[in-house]
Each structure stands twice: as C-alpha cells, then as structure tokens.
Fold each of these.
Amino acid sequence: PITNFSFNNATGAIQSAVVLTQGLNTFVVTSVNNCGTDVETSTIIYQKCIAPMITVVAPTSNGTTVNTANFSLSALIQNSNNGQGITLKQNNVTVTNFSFNNATNSFQSTVTLVPGLNTFVLTSVNSCGTDVETITVNYQNCIAPVITVVAPTSNGTTVSSASFSLSALILNSNNGQGITLNINGRSISNFTFSNATGVFQSTLNLTPGLNTIVLTSVNSCGTDTETITINYDNCVPPVISITNPAVNGTTVTSPTYGFSALIEHTNNGQGITLTQNNTAITGFNFNNNLSTMQASITLIPGLNTFVLSATNSCGNDSKTATIFYKTTKPGEVKPIDEKNKPEVIPPTPPKIQEGKGG
C-alpha cells in the first residue's frame, strides 16, 4: 500500500511520487464506491543507467614520442553496452580495425602512425551518456646521426708511429652521406664506411706533436660531431738488444767471435759505439733496413767485456755483454782462478827413447 498520494476531486487526478526498485515495478490503482469497483494495473521497468568510462592504457601519457610507425593503442572501456557506440578517429579519419572484449572491457587497435603529431579521439556512447578521450602520439621518423669513437679509446693518446688507424661506429648516417673527416683543419677523403654495420675507418698520417681530428656526420634530422686528439711523439730514443752472445759470461774457445745486436731508432746507424775492454771497436757493420749491427771480434784470453751504446737526439741506450775466451793449447794463456790470472802452460817436452847397451 502507498498512502502518500494526492487526489484532486475537481479534476479526478491522483498523483504520487514513488521510489522505484531495480527491475520490474507493478502498480495497482483501485477505486471503490457504492456502485462498484475499478482496478488499473501499470508496470514500470527500472534499469539503472551508467554512462561509459574510458581509461587509456597505452600510451601511458599524451605527447609520447616514438620512432616506429606501428603503434598499439589500448584502453579499458566500462559500461560500453557490449562495445556498441565505440568509435576511434586518427587525425579526424575513422579507424575501424579495433577489437573490444566485453568480458575484460579491453579495447585494442594497431594503428599506423604518420610522421609528426598523431591525434586519436576515442569515444564511447550509450543511452546514459558519452565519454571521450583524446590521445596524442608523436612519430619521429627522422633520427640524427650518432658517432661512437672506437680507436683511439681516449683523447690525448700518445703514439710513436706516424700512421694511425682511426675507427668509429656511426648510426643513422644515411648510407654514409654527410660524413666528413678533418685532421688539423685539412679535409681527409681516404676513409671507408659500411652502411650495414655502421663501421667507419681511416688510416691517418700524423704530424709530429698534437693532431686534432674532427669527425662529423650530418643528415636531414641533425648533426653529430666528435673531436679526437692524438699526440704523435716522433722522437724515440734508441733501443738495444744484444743477440750474440745471448747470455752474459758465455765461454768460448776460439779467438774469433761474431758479435751481433738489434738497434732500433738509430738515425741510420749514427751514434753507435762499441768498446772491448774499454778499447773502441770501429770495424762493425749496421744494416739500417733491418736495424742489425754485426762485428767480427778478436777476443783476448780471459774475460772480454763489450759495451754497446747508441745515441740520438731523443736519448740513448747502452748494453753490456761479457765473453770468456778460454785457451787450452800448450803455450797459450788460460785462466787458473776466479781473478782470471793467466798461467803459462809449458810445452810438453819431447819423449826421449832410451838406447840399448853402452
């Protein structure tokens, strides 16, 4: 029974403000007087109505910048009436290749971006209302070059050779176009570039002192420049390696000895000196191509001390070698103690044959 109703006797109108319940509501109006009864039944279905609600999942934020054309747009759409009333537009052009899962409320669409700003408008409409989300994605299909120097590994590297192999990795170089190389302000064209691997290589001829190398790569999207410094120290002191004798204190029994050594950075053999027991030896040969020095030495009995020195404008090097010449034949001098004191061995007297009789 509902008692909160009003009746206008003049017009015969009955009114009541009622609270509906979810689903079917059945109302029965009855009027009785002395002459009879009238009954009217009315039904009203109350279906609770909620407007759609869109939550964008990807991209996570507006204005996202990507560098690939394919993009997966996704969202959650609640109260969408089984996906009816969902529309998607990209730059005001309708997109139809999307899917909607009513059980999970998941919306997905793989779209092809155009270079620059892409504006998406996702709309969901039902009988209770509308929700609209605007999503922006920036497709940057133009990427500036990126240079990574491989060799030298660090700036200011010091080398002692005029020839240097410069190498780098260059990405987004547009097949090598726009790559330039300068050394000490001078343009270099003898370099190679592999577009497949991005490997850049050039053999440079350094000048003495500091060399400043500028490697640049330019495309329509930007520029990358790397400045490399290499110090070429062309002043190197000599380096001596005695090859014969291989071991100090070597003992020999022949007075003739082939002394040899390897001498690098000698300025064509100038500045080389060799002494034997403090006496200078001049009769030696030097091969500049092989950096080898050779001398035929006449040893003296006992200890022979050789001092080999080499000097240039950058420094000097000196090595000492010792050879012990041991004589064994009668009449020759040979050492008898640790102080190398000579002992003369007398000749063996001839054997006298005894005579018979007499």
Note: Residues 76 and 346 are 118 Å apart (CA to CA).
Amino acid sequence: MKIKDQPLDFRPREKLVRLGSDNLSQEELLAIIISTGTKGKNAIQVGKELISKFGENLLTTSIEDLCEIKGLG
C-alpha cells in the first residue's frame, strides 16, 4: 500500500509532527528521508529492507552498497 493511501494518523511525516521522532520506528524515520518507494514497495518497506540488510552498520554503509537496494539511487 502506498503511504499516501494510508490514513493520516499512520503516515510517517504526520506522525512525526504529531508525536515527535521518539514515537516513530526506525523504518518510519528512514521512510521520511527516503521520501518515495518503488513500484510494489513503499518507503517504509524500503526502510525495513535497509535495516534488515545493514542493521547497525547502516550509518557506515557505502553509497555503492546502499544503491544496491531497489528504491535508492
């Protein structure tokens, strides 16, 4: 499901404004940075994939490795 098709209360940007960053998951925070997903995968799902693949090493992951994730470029 596209993020824009979700109820406002569940959209990451709106949740950030309403509840603050401490109340968002890592995937939701990444979705805000990523902004858009790809066909068949929304930004939250891309964020989940990033965390799943790189975990705590995400901040030190190379651009080349990040670009291997469909939806990032």
Note: The radius of gyration is 12 Å.
Amino acid sequence: ARDCKRAGETVSMTITEPSLRGYFGAGSEGDWLGLEEREFQCKATVDSAIIGALKKAVGNDLAGDIEKRLVILSDRDFTWFARYALPVMARNVLSKDGKKKSENLWYEESLAPDTVMYVLFGERDLAVDAITTAIIDAPYVQIGGNETIGQGWFKMARYTAPELQNKEAEA
C-alpha cells in the first residue's frame, strides 16, 4: 500500500499478519499449501486491489501468474524460507596442473527463476530519465554475476502511475 501510494495509485488494503502457519493467497479460505516441508493454511484470499496493483506493476507477461501464485506469509515464516530454503550451490575452481586440487571454493545462493522483484524509481533531478534510458527501456537486463551460466537476468516492465500518464500525454 505504501509503494502504491508513492507511485500515485490509490489502493485501500488491509493485511494483518497471518497467524503462525497461515498465509494470504490464492485459493479459498481453509485451503492447505505445501511449501518445502512446511504446510500453511489459507486464512484469507488476497484483496483484489493488491492483485490489480501487482498486475499493473509486473506487466502483461506475468499478470496471469500473480493471481494463482501469490502467497503472503508472516515475517517469521518468510525468514525461515530466506534462511533455510534458498538453494545454495558450492562452486570450485580446480588447479590447472592436472592434480585436481581446489584453488578456490565458494558458495552461492540463488533465487527461484520465477521470483518477482520490483523497485520504485522516484523523480529526483534528472536521475529518472537516465535510469529509464539505461535500464527500464531494455526488455531484459542482467544484474549481478554469473551471466555466462544464465543467472541474474531480469525481465523489465515499466509502470507509469495514472497521474503521470496524463502529464506525458499533455507533453
């Protein structure tokens, strides 16, 4: 709701933190959902205002999935997933002398490929124009490492608040 307000959208929504092992999401109240080895019971469906705002923000490609896949967990349950359910891959560089000796061992966490992330850019001097030109107008952008193994790619979608759309139309 805070981000929608900053983006010029009027959305009235109330989400109280679900009780332990409860979630807000798609489905009917009382439905069960299994995530990893944990089970959660649906306490209420997500308000249509939230779904509508998210559909606008993520663009047409992902809008259909949002309604079916959105789950809002308590901070406590989400923390558990952040700590214990992210895939951790061990990576290694072996010596080139043929002895297969480890030269560099490190670990990487990665998000699921269908993770939806968003960021709000607000106007401050001319920074928004520079960011829009450099990043947002590109259909895809690679952020972070591991480009060569297909990680870090983001599909970009631009959302303009209705009040800003009117200003752009006048200009």
Note: The chain is about 30% helix and 25% strand.
Amino acid sequence: MNMEMLTASVGRGGRNQFKDVATIQTLINDCLYLLGPLCFLQVDGKIGARTIDAIDMFQKIAMKMTKPDGRVDPRGKTLMALNFKKIRPRPHLVTGLFRDISKPFFKTPSEPSYKFPLAMRPRESYKTGMRRFGATRSGGRLHAGCDLYAQIGTPVYAMADGVVETAGYEFYLGTYAVEVKHLDFLALYGELGKVSSPLKKGATVKKGQLVGKIGKLQGLNMSMLHLEMYSGKENGRLTVKSNLPYKRRSDLIDPTSILDKAK
C-alpha cells in the first residue's frame, strides 16, 4: 500500500506546513465513507478550524478516541489509521504528493444540510420576543440561544452528524442538556427531560437521531427546546459568568440563520 508521509505535525499545535496540511486534507477526503460528506475539505494546504474539526471527528469515529487531540504526527497512530482506512484504489490517483481533486469522490455541498431539531416548526417564532437570541434577561444578561416552544415530551433530534461532548447534566429548573459537536458548530440542546443512557461522552450521533425529549421546567407553565450554538474555536465550559453580556464562552454564535435553513 502506498503510504502518505509527513515531514511535520498537522493540526492543533502542529507546524502545519503547506504540503503536510494538503496531505492530511486529502486523506480526510479519502475517508468520507466513514465521516460523511459534510467533512469534505478543500485541499488548499491551509490549516483552519474545519481541518482540525475533521481530524477530531476522524479520531473519534474511526479510531474511537475518547480524548482526540486534533493532531496528526509524522509517525503517529492517526497518520497510520488515515492511510489504512482511505479508499483504495481510486481512479484519480496520480504519482507524487498531490491527487487530482478536480472531480472529487464527494462534491462539496454548496450549503450544509441541517435537520430542524423538532418534527414541526413551533407556532411561536424563535426570532421574536423573549425567545430570540439576544433578548434581554434579568440583571442585564442577554439570551444566549433560541427557544423553540413545544409540549413536554416532544422529541428533539440531532441537526447533523456529530459526537457527544457531554450528556445528561442538569441544566435549568430540573431539566437537562446534551452537547453535540457537529462539524460546523457545537450545539447545546437544553431544557430536556432525563437523557437516555446511550448518549454518553464520545458517542456518535447521526442527523435526525433522537437526542432527548423536552422536559418540564419546575415552577413554570411552559416548555421548550433551548438551543445554543458555538463555533468550536474555544474549549472548556460553555457557561462563563464573567463573560458579559451573555455569560457564555466567547465562541457563542447566533443559531437563527442555521435554524432558518434547517429542513
């Protein structure tokens, strides 16, 4: 088997030399049968969040690593796994370091396809009133997500393929939350009932898979999915009380446009 080699590390904390990054991007694309087409990378030799996220995803899904480091070393296990799991033979292989990617096995999606997290869009818009992202809360805090009103017990679905970061911790007024790292963002699915046991840290989820059901908020006559999103550029706990005005991690993003496009 023709093994692709590196001169230096690629990914989080790596030297990220042009040819090495292009090699890893190509190998990731050769493993899309495991990762799905949303992991397709432009082979441009430039390291970025998408490439690092794809390495993380490969380590979690293909190598079953519970603590992926998002890095590929020249003589490391991740490089070996990428070489052994790549599709072969491929009709467009050419000699040398680079492959002809003018006709990729998977086409880059012009726009990622997401599933709406509920079976039906709520009657009350998540873009207005107290439900919208950025709505004012007590003490000058701003709302860090979008609220999708629905009845207790309503199923909540994964918006895309991903890997569970954290599941089943108490979130707000007796409800629970699940954090899933999707390719383009990390999603917090909050205000759920007790989360089912298969959703453990490191578990893979598929788009449309059940992640929980809407729970009962103690003392309030309402129920909803509280959805937060993060770019994934930062690490650590999502709640940061000192980080005003949202009191959330600095890579918090507005979910509205993604929800609008979700099917």
Note: The first strand starts at residue 10 and ends at 11.
